[in-house]
């Protein structure tokens, strides 16, 4: 009975995702373009896709001897493992006060803590295969005022599933106190389904349970309306052209000027976006597969999605 219900809703399961979409539409030789955040960032620069500014990269342990000079000149910044996944190993520093580095959750760290964290990154503690990695240090994005009260400390991000260049489903991920300021659903962030045609909120979930207000701020989640939505979809659609991958998750943030920035890409995006949207991916994916003529230009693909997959549309 429950299986029939999921099937009727068009829910995409993990096996079908892996075999019929990731396996079929993502060439394995292209994975490094998204599994390595440094390669993604350099590729985005070549394709003129906006992303947070790269301050510097630390590749060897001996470079940490110069950590004082490297970090004291920065105010807010983010340290990321190039080959990390699921948000692991990311350290976000909001500011420096009295010689201490203050995280978004208010924890105060010393330079020794920063060096230890980077040393762990280089040793491969957070990399996908446990192999040696490099540490990326990039600017801290000051997020849009429209998210005030909707996220606890951390920067909200927008996950969009892009299939064969068409943005097919989207959600907003909002940090909570429980998620320690991180927009990670598995750590307790909120997932808000977004109407792919308008960028307005649909359903919201916390650990897969329905939610109406942010547990820490009390903001009503149904009031969310993302500005510049078509520009965001256009950026997401271009990521297909940039990587050549047929099935990807694009993670996008809005800066203080409401300008969309590419945060990272994922060749194996999770399936919880369906729970946040209250509907399955399969009908939209099958619809794209059946198109007799695909649209070449990213803007054409966005225009098609706006009229085909909105909350009021029926497939």
From TrEMBL:
Residues 41-292 form the ATP-grasp domain. GO terms for cellular component: cytoplasm. InterPro entries: ATP-grasp, RimK-rel_E_lig, RimK-rel_E_lig_ATP-grasp. The keyword Acetylation does not apply. Gene3D superfamilies: ATP-grasp fold, B domain. GO terms for molecular function: ATP binding; metal ion binding; ribosomal S6-glutamic acid ligase activity. One of its GO terms (biological process) is SOS response. Keywords: ATP-binding, Ligase, Nucleotide-binding. This is Alpha-L-glutamate ligase-related protein. It comes from Desulfuromonas acetoxidans (strain DSM 684 / 11070).
